[in-house]
Amino acid sequence: MLDILKTRLRQKHRTIAFPSRPPELPDRFRGLPVLDPSACGGKCAARSRACVAACPVSAISVRKDGPPEGRIRIDLGRCVFCGDCAAACPSGAIRFTNDYRLAVRSRADLMYSGDPLRLADAFGGRIRKLFGRSLKLRQVSAGGCNACEADVNVLTTVVFDLGRFGIQIVASPRHADGLLVTGPVSLGMRDALLSTYEAVPDPKIVIAVGACAISGGLYAGRPETCNGADPLVPVDLYVPGCPPHPITILDGMLRLLGKLEKR
After folding, report:
1. Around Cβ 38, how many Cβ atoms within 10 Å?
2. Predicted structure pTM score
């Protein structure tokens, strides 16, 4: 017992201060992109072809009409944040910031043209009253590569301490308030996801974590997948990334529960 106490004193306090203080993210972290079509000299449609071609998931499109500031568009729900588009752009019209705030409530809000991202708002009424202080989630790995699953799992460690916000990952859908889905939903996991969703008591929520769960990601359009959770179950929160940083996932959850409304 004394050895345990000594070790605990030596380790000191390890839980991060977020959300009371901004998180400390590494320089290599890629968050919300900044789009600057003016850097293309008003010729976005011609000069952005390199950026479009560089994207491995076809997340970038270029409009041929409309104002220059609306011509480049990135589907953040498909984007894997690889940075290839920024590297391919000779004029620097696309660059990635370290802004970790990416979670939204609507799939349409992930169609990003450079305007301020409409971050997730909180549940209202009875749902917020039910889940605002205690939210239990059943995690479903629907054919994922284990990257998103690992970043969800790390939220339960002492560093992030998901439980201090009243959020828990539980073993049974019968004990859950909703699902947290990762992976593109392979055909082999389709029925499992639907059965798990049906087993969760009403009212229930669904959180799609990662590009695969949102759109199919790198596997979008493949006949072996369902292109994410959206075609099968109603999604209440979309958390982009490949994988999303644990802080990005936590930020989205806290916004959904009304704990970050003014941030």
Report:
1. 12
2. 0.90
